[in-house]
Amino acid sequence: MSMSEVPGHYPFTRGIYADMYRGRLWTMRQYAGFGTAEESNRRYRYLLAQGTTGLSIAFDLPTQMGLDSDHPLAAGEVGRVGVAICSLADMERLLDGIKLDQITTSMTINSTAAILLSLYVLTGRRQGANVRKLSGTVQNDILKEYIARGTYIYPPRPAMRIITDLFAWAAAELPEWNTISISGYHIREAGSTASQEVAFTLANAIAYIEAAVRAGLEVDSFAPRVSFFFNAHNNFLEEIAKYRAARRLYARIMKDRFGARNPKSMMLRFHTQTAGSTLTAQQPDVNVVRVALQALAAVLGGTQSLHTNSRDEALSLPTEESARLALRTQQIIAHETGVTNVADPVGGSFYIEQLTDEIERGAQDYLGRIDAMGGTLAAIENGFIQAEIQNAAYEFQKSIERGETVVVGVNRFRQEDETPPVTFRMDPELERTQVERLRELRSSRSKDAVEDRLNALEQAARGSDNLMPRILAACEAYATVGEISGRLRQVFGEYRET
Predict the structure, then answer these.
(1) What is the per-residue pLDDT across 98-123, written as a single tens digit (0 to 9) for each?
(2) Which of 7, 56, 388, 481 is the most interior residue, by most CB within 10 Å?
(3) Are 340 and 334 in contact (CB under 8 A)?
(4) DSSP count for the chain of H helices, then E strands
(5) Are the beta carbons of 275 and 188 closer than 8 angstroms?
(6) What is d(CA 50, CA 63) in angstroms, rounded to the nearest whole number?
(7) How much is the pLDDT for 1?
(8) At CA 245, angle to CA 239 and CA 249, rounded to 5?
């Protein structure tokens, strides 16, 4: 057997570590966040008490879009799909009693990632933590927002500058932090195929790495902290092969295209979330089975961390009971199935190997076409990637309508007169509480200090200085997410999809 066929060796097809889960289990990182910081803090403490091993923070849409909770466009959206964070005061409440130097944290945030990471770092510093030892991930993947999701603020090119500034700053100040989690998850949720998920995710990775190199960074100085985020969809064997193909293709890209020499620069480390788009409002308990199989595919595919969706997420935010059951699903896979006793349980499967080759070839073909267009930004700007995903989504929907693709409980095996499940209900007063607190903060802080630091940030944005120290300083003076984003909007403008 050649070394290329052994887990822990280039090109890492069979896993990035030689012993995989025999040495350490994946991180069980349950995504959560809603309402105010206090409400989310209670859910985090609950999940930690139930055995989750990492935090994963969901932010509400206003926070993702750089709008404060009292902005007119935020009305009705505050705390709905995640927690509302406007300032350092909110972040401190969110993480109260949770020692940031003893846990890893993932933050699903993109356009405002630099701001939210600054708030996290400041909170850790005030806890007395050694900031250089803080560990976790900020998603910080803006390109997939233009492709598949839509929570962008600035045009692509200045948005890329913020990302490379964060890369450079974190390499010096936050060396154990993953500075980007390049997301195929949302590409798949928008309707892509498995090959497209791999191709467009790695195309985005190439664009980020090229931008960082152009900004003067050595590839091995930041690439070991690049991470990925993939979907776990329904086709069990195809999903396992997808992760293997992505690992192998990325290793070759890093070695051959970018000249990486550090093996850690060639390792594709990834978080997985089970597929929200596959969950059904009909017969929601059946979603437990879907999630279990998707999670098992992610584990057999070699994921480094995992979120399992809750059965009721097609209807509402998950209840505590549903969130606990989702976590228990991971714990059963880890401790009862025996799949963690061998580094690569599916190694040697002829069909897995064939699927791996097919997905890699399909992804390579897309990467060649994107290169021929002038790269990822050009392919986004001319709508190529978006159109490919939309066409795949359309064809999949038509196959469901024709009955060629079976969705249990939707187009076959329906159940009439279902009893509606108990779903999560959010207190409507939470938005009013959040807005009142924000207004109190604005009246109690030093207005001159905030204005001075926002002016310094704007001046840096009009020049070429790294933005991170200015963002950090503004956050420390209790400038809000909306105010900081607003100053950058004045310089960079806003993106409008054509």
Answers:
(1) 999 999 999 999 999 999 999 999 99
(2) 481
(3) yes
(4) 19, 9
(5) yes
(6) 28
(7) 45
(8) 150
User: 3-class DSSP state for residue 215?
Assistant: coil
In a domain, 407, yes or no: no
Domain with residue 202: its CATH number is 3.20.20.240
CB count, 10 Å around CB of 364? Answer: 18
CB burial of residue 136 (10 Å; 0-12, 13-18, 19+): buried
Other Cβ atoms within 10 Å of 93 Cβ, number: 19
Task: Note down the domain range covering 250.
Answer: 3-335+346-401
Sign of the CA dihedral running 331, 337, 343, 348 = negative
Angle (nearest 5°) at CA 183 between 178 and 55: 50
Q: For residue 423, tell me if it sits in a domain.
A: no
Helix then strand then coil, in percent of the chain rounded to 5, is: 55, 10, 35
Task: Taking residues 218-236, report their average pLDDT.
Answer: 96
The pLDDT score that the predictor gives to residue 416 is 87
Quote the tokens at residue 114.
Answer: 């630099």
What is the count of structural domains for the chain? 1
Instruction: Judge residue 215's burial from the number of C-beta atoms within 10 Å of its C-beta, 0-12 exposed, 13-18 middle, 19 or more buried.
Output: middle
The neighbour count for residue 440, using CB atoms within 10 Å, is: 11
What is the chain's mean pLDDT, rounded?
A: 96
Q: DSSP class of residue 35? A: B
Residue type (1 letter), 247: R
* CA end-to-end span of the chain: 52
Query: Which residues are paired to 181 by β-bridges?
Result: 227
Q: Is residue 474 part of a domain?
A: no
Instruction: Provide the token pair at 485.
Output: 């984003």
If DSSP codes are grouped into helix, strand and coil, which group holds residue 203? helix
184 in a structural domain: yes
